[in-house]
Design brief:
Length: 498
């Protein structure tokens, strides 16, 4: 065990004289012989039983070392102060420097070094061996007791003194602020502009549901999904609740079933509304961070995060009845989206709206708004499309859809979107003098690309068409009789859901 600190707590032996029994060597005495290699300088303090110089610490305070036991008298007596006469050669080795006390320590070799030559001591009687061992044992026991006492004293001081190494936990700085762009900062900025919508039908049962919306302008317009408010559109009631708990009545301004977009207006809009900024969904990249805010299963003001998993994902969603299916070229995200998130904003890392959460992929039930939970496949209407629809609904209350003037097969998938042989109710599948007819398209043609995006089915074709506006010129690739051709179509328009 280490005894490095033991000398600091040992008290002097009361029986030891405070001065040597023989007078110091006068200044005129010849200088002491050269010290043996490894001996340290003499300490400046007075003599003490536990303070011989330690060769291992030549410049520090005196410490007892293992060499103390080696210096026990050869007679086998217990160690005492050096008051007895010494042998001449020993006295010479311990002669004090001129004008000082105590005498220099004996030469002690460093660990691993060769021991300096020491004259052999006279053979001690066998009976004295036990005395030497007892003296060494007593010194070890005394050292152990001192070490234990010092350890306890140090522990006590460590518990209560200023030298404690224990670091107590402190309170968070009062000036702590979340950096702009963090999820917490974006959520704090956006939550006051996101609302929970309660829709109730006008029937006797008062059926309805919960969805989400966000503030579109300072006049009190709220953008959401059509399927959120459809049950209250005819004679029902709508209420909107902000994150601060304040609720307002609302009414439907317009809704577009095909786009799954609706606009509400607060009947008594409060002042100071803060519309959410709108981003550019065309510039979104796969891997961009996303933040979804909504009321999944009625849990208002829920924030979830993820990334853009894919773009231009053709999605046909509906309420399960097929009566109000909608089509979108969606942004796919793995942010957790559940029933109740519908109509809420999908934000980018800057807090701008890049989409409206609308549909989820449910295991075994296809796309839609069923009550199954999120499996990491959520779909949002690109905000560029939703913005155009919302502006149209605010202006006229009715949606306007771009069309090509052709009926396509909605059930087959894989090779493209085939123009049907006949239209609904036996009408022509290609509207005479319509956009498709003017572009040279005929029944049986299979459209494989639209505006540079691959088409694998009728729903994917409609999803791509509705990302454009009436009057846009779009290039189409198609197959006819095994040959590939291209043409350009100028989109027409259709007003209202019919």
């Amino acid at each position: 065990m280490s005894t490095e600190n033991e000398g600091k707590a040992v008290q002097g032996d009361p029986a030891a004289p405070s001065v040597p029994p023989t007078p110091p060597v006068p200044p005129s005495a010849p200088p002491a012989p050269t010290e043996a290699p490894g001996a340290g300088p003499a300490p400046a303090s007075g003599p003490s039983v536990a303070r011989p110089a330690d060769a291992a610490h030549p410049t520090g305070p005196a410490h007892p070392t293992h060499a103390n036991a080696q210096e026990a008298p050869a007679t086998g007596e217990a160690p005492t102060v050096h008051a007895a006469p010494m042998a001449p050669e020993t006295h010479a080795a311990h002669a004090a420097p001129a004008g000082g006390w105590p005498p220099p320590p004996p030469a002690v070799p460093s660990w691993g070094a060769q021991h300096a030559h020491v004259p052999p001591a006279p053979a001690a009687p066998r009976k004295r061996t036990g005395g030497l061992v007892a003296a060494v044992l007593a010194a070890a026991l005394l050292a152990g007791g001192i070490g234990g006492g010092i350890g306890y004293w140090a522990a006590e001081r460590g518990d209560n003194g200023a030298g404690s190494t224990t670091v107590s936990s402190g309170e968070a700085p009062a000036s702590f602020k979340r950096d702009p762009g963090t999820v917490a900062a974006v959520a704090a900025q956006a939550l006051p502009s996101v609302v929970t919508i309660q829709a109730k039908s006008g029937g006797s049962q008062g059926e309805g549901g919960t969805g989400t919306g966000f503030v579109y302008d300072q006049e009190g317009h709220i953008v959401t999904n059509n399927h959120v408010v459809a049950s209250a559109a005819d004679g029902g009631t709508l209420s909107v609740t902000f994150s601060d708990g304040k609720s307002y009545d609302a009414e439907v301004v317009g809704r577009a079933e095909g786009y799954d977009v609706a606009v509400l207006k607060l009947t008594n809009a409060p002042k100071g509304l803060k519309p959410l900024p709108l981003g550019n969904s065309d510039k979104v990249a796969v891997g961009d961070s996303t933040i979804a805010i909504g009321a999944p299963f009625g849990l208002s003001n829920t924030v979830t995060t993820g990334i853009i998993s894919a773009k231009n994902r053709p999605v046909a969603s509906g309420d399960g009845s097929g009566a109000s299916n909608s089509y979108m070229s969606a942004l796919q995200t793995d942010a957790s989206i559940n029933p109740g998130n519908s109509g809420g904003p999908l934000l980018d890392a800057s807090g701008a709206v890049i989409g409206i959460n609308s549909a989820i992929q449910s295991a075994g039930s296809g796309f839609g708004q069923s009550q199954a939970g999120s499996i990491g496949l959520g779909f949002a209407i690109p905000v560029n499309q939703a913005k155009n629809v919302a502006q149209q609904l605010i202006r006229t209350g009715k949606p306007v859809y771009p069309v090509i003037g052709a009926t396509v097969n909605m059930n087959e998938k894989g090779e493209g979107a085939e123009i049907a042989a006949r239209g609904t109710g036996g009408t022509p599948s290609v509207t005479p003098n319509g956009p498709a007819a003017k572009a040279g398209l005929k029944p049986g043609d299979v459209i494989t690309a639209f505006g540079g995006h691959q088409i694998d089915s009728g729903p994917s074709l409609i999803s791509e068409i509705w990302t454009h506006k009436p009057g846009d010129s779009v290039e189409i690739a198609y197959e006819r009789d095994g040959r590939t051709a291209t043409t350009t179509v100028v989109l027409g328009e259709r007003t209202g859901d019919s």
